[in-house]
């Protein structure tokens, strides 16, 4: 479908709002959780693809179906690749660093299922988006 | 779960708990229930906002209003005024210490301003392979506004007013470049995105292309509309396979939605983009060399003038801008030039992405407003030097820049102040060196790079960089004499003054600046005991070609 | 830049290049809308097909496009991405970006040269490895970095090199 006017663009924007509203502030309701995985070259060469696969496997194994795994670009924290952000509705997004595949189980177990972030792996988000 | 219209976020961090945020929360809950809003309004305890000094913090979403120093007694006003009547409680808004201007958006608070992400705004936030996520965050709105509501000159005027300058290194005002290209009349014009990021240690363009490819496509379309082009080219390094694949996906999706192609937004404006692959040549970052390479030729630079704005790709007026420059365009159109110009210094507006690498704790990308000091970047954002080592110098501008030492750490950085310090902005690579690094070796490393990458078009570039490298090699092998240092300095200035293009004109910068700041380290390599002045007191006698 | 190579005009064609590959390249060129300005694109494709750009492939492209062989060679030798020599079974690349350099990539590559008995851009005697020094691959957080094919080795120290080589020598 081709967009033919600014109004049509805005309509599409509205329709897809829920896709990103959780990312932006983390204050929507509902029970859909998102896991964002930094999948730029830097992340991938540090093992992000294995991490992503591990998340998908783990969620499948645990039969958790309200979690969406989204590959995203990098946020520039090269020192802590691969980076993973977990957005739970009603909570501030939590950013994890150095999440190799072997840390995935712990995050799913404690954060996704248990609701308590794994403080040991947490990173501070020190920027604001324009 | 009930449909909630508003969330009240109360900070439950240790700092705020210490200032009774738990009581604030309890009061809010009680009053909301009493007013019958329990189904619509939810009170949520959050993690620390990182602004403990002003605690307790309460944030109202989706209004994005930020209240500070909220006492238990203030809960009533927040509910009765804000929630029930929709009016902000003025006295609780954050007050900026200097200007006494009330701000209520988290983004506006100075505490959060160390890093502001404009060019990187969507990186790590959206799925780069899903155009709808980009659209959902306001994507392509700027393009729609530009081509349906503005004239070409209005678009150019906005970019000019914003003060945006080329982020590839040169710092040429973007709006002016667009204006010049627009003024050159021709039926065929081109807009080219320079994605041939060659500076070793800089990777912000790749991050943008991999994380937010649509922002570049959108901006290219805006630029094309402004200058009157209907064809765009992204010249990208073949070494970036992931960026290439994401760009291809993005272009395909944009075509499907009619955001590229014929009659965009139902107007007369048509525009499409092709990719051209580089093949590993640093000099192709220079715009005339880049255009030659796009034409399938050796990527050697041409003599300017004529500038690409007059005679570029296949002889037609062409505008070449860098990836990061483009990524700044959509927010400028959406939020206005005044917003953009409010960040940065007098002559360098907005933000700049830097890649921190080398001996620094937080290796990575940062985006900061121009005018921030190197000290803030390296020690506050970058986390300082690992293993408690001492900071020695930072190289900005990659192989074309120079070193800045401790004494320069407090200079506010922008295009001009870095030039004054004998370095340059460049594309934004920052390599931090500690006490263990030998600066002569660093200079040699950069010269090896430029020697390899010099295209061979001009003599001083071709032979000069090789000789500079050989001299540095001789010095680091301990075989050099004082006279060699003299010759090195002379040759450095000669190459600087007489090379054809920017690559080799700036190639000696690492030598010149390390000789200026770390003369001792050069001397340490010299075993020239018979020299009349001995070690350490040698001043070059021959002043040919020496400017500073 | 690629090092100068000798192309002898009298030397007979010794390279055994399969004709299907030439057919594939020809089909690619014939399907292009225009070959104007497409030399680099064609060479990228040719290198994809053949793995490298030997003399005969360069001459083939020149004849096909109707341009002098020197022009093709001029472009091939200008860009470091193009190679005129076949590679080893594995390409061992050492990142020489600045971040890796200040963290010791120079020592790593010297050690590799010593262990493999080759200089950079050369192939080992057993045909197993090509050693390359490459520009920043963007894994600066892992510096210094060595890649073998798609596999990335981060924070490589001199003493790790034996293990890396052993993993492929078997």
Short description, anyone?
The complex is a heterotrimer of chains A (130), B (548) and C (170). Helix content of chain B is 39%, strand content 14%. Chain B has helices at 14-18, 21-34, 75-85, 131-136, 141-149, 152-162, 174-183, 204-211, 213-227, 241-256, 287-294, 323-335, 337-341, 374-381, 415-420, 439-453, 459-476, 482-498, 502-506, 509-517, 519-524; strands spanning 6-11, 41-46, 58-61, 65-67, 94-95, 102-103, 116-117, 190-195, 231-236, 272-277, 318-322, 351-358, 364-369, 391-396, 403-405, 429-434.
Topology, number of strands of chain B: 16
The CATH homologous superfamily of the largest domain in chain B is called NADH-ubiquinone oxidoreductase 51kDa subunit
> Which CATH class of the largest domain in chain B?
Alpha Beta
The separation of the N and C termini of chain B measures 71 Å
How large, in whole angstroms, is the Cα Rg of chain B?
27 Å
Rg of chain A: 16 Å
User: End-to-end span of chain A in angstroms?
Assistant: 30 Å
Relative helix content of chain A: 25-40%
From the spread of the alpha carbons, the general shape of chain A counts as globular
What number is the mean pLDDT of chain B?
Answer: 86
* CATH topology-level fold name of chain A: Glutaredoxin
Protein described:
Chain C: [2Fe-2S] cluster binds at residues 95, 100, 136, 140. The complex is a heterotrimer of chains A (130), B (548) and C (170). By secondary structure, chain A is of the alpha+beta class. Chain A is 36% helix and 18% strand. Chain A has a single domain (32-123), classed as Glutaredoxin (3-Layer(aba) Sandwich). The radius of gyration of chain A is 16 Å and the shape is globular. Chain B folds into 4 domains: 6-109, Glutaredoxin; 131-337, NADH-ubiquinone oxidoreductase 51kDa subunit (Rossmann fold, 3-Layer(aba) Sandwich); 351-434, Roll (Ubiquitin-like (UB roll)); 439-524, de novo design (two linked rop proteins), CATH 1.20.1440. A 5-stranded mixed sheet of chain B has the order 13-12-16-14-15. In chain B, strands 2-1-3-4 form a 4-stranded mixed sheet, covered by helices on one side. In chain B, a hairpin with a 6-residue loop joins β5 (94-95) and β6. The longest helix of chain B has 18 residues, at 459-476. With 170 residues, chain C is α+β, with helices and mostly antiparallel strands. Chain C folds into 2 domains: 19-78; 90-169, Glutaredoxin (3-Layer(aba) Sandwich). Chain C has 7 helices and 4 strands. Chain C has helices at residues 19-30, 39-50, 55-65, 69-78, 98-102, 105-116, 161-169; strands at residues 90-95, 129-134, 146-148, 151-153. The longest helix of chain C is centred in the N-terminal third of the chain and has 12 residues, at 19-30. At the A-B interface, α1, α2, α3, β2 and β6 of A face β2, β7, α4, α5 and α8 of B. β6 (128-129) of chain A pairs parallel with β7 (116-117) of chain B, so a sheet runs across the interface.
